[in-house]
Specification:
Helix 5 links the parallel strand 2 and strand 3. Helix 9 packs antiparallel against helix 11. Helices cover 35% and strands 23% of the residues. It has a 7-stranded mixed β-sheet. The protein contains 11 helices and 7 strands. With 249 residues, it is α/β, with parallel strands linked by helices. The protein is globular.
Length: 249
Amino acid sequence: MCADLHPLVAAGFAAAAAGDAYEAGRPDFPPAAVAALDLPAGARVLDLAAGTGKLTRALRAAGHPVAAVEPLAGMRAGIEAEEVLEGTAEAIPLPDASVEAVTVGDAWHWFDAEPAAAEVARVLRPGGRLALLGQFPLPPEDGSAWFVVLGDAVSRLLAAHPAFVADRGRGALIAHPGFGPLEERAVEHRQETDAAGVLAYVATLSPVAAMAPDERAAFLRPLAEALPAGPIAQRFLVRIELARRDAHR
């Protein structure tokens, strides 16, 4: 199945999963992000492109049974859910109208948006909702200079990353007759980490994860030199976009 994925997914995320870097480096989704989805109690959720299950865990902690769908075997291996299935957004291995919500954490930009929107509409029950969540680093409250170095490093990756194109696949959702308008929400959170944790986070960004080891080490070196010793309060903004499945289409 990897042959059908974006090259950065197939190469970068497969490498990150194999070395456990993704699980170690990516931030967890906070309970407040799940609460912001306003899901009915006990709603069955499809966590699409579930990765190592970070959003899956937050959904299950909130009392939701989850079917986690993920194409990469190395990612799926660590997921704990009621169902863990191999599949993609363009070919979801679930029956029609079988879930009350679909969540996508940091992944919609990787999909072929039109067939993905059609598949999500197919598996959602009328009145259910699609939730797109993305986590973005925020500057440290103490104004630490290392964040500027991080920004400079990440800005060099943007041309290779579909998350930073203007549309990011949202047009397919807006155009699909089965969905209502997108509603935006946001949640801020922080997690305690250290220099190794920040470096692990950057190393899981797909263009970095896809680099050869020597190239990756050279890319990370300026950030490693700028990071302080001791604990770091890493701040994130969770951007949430919600679209309800039209009950009449």
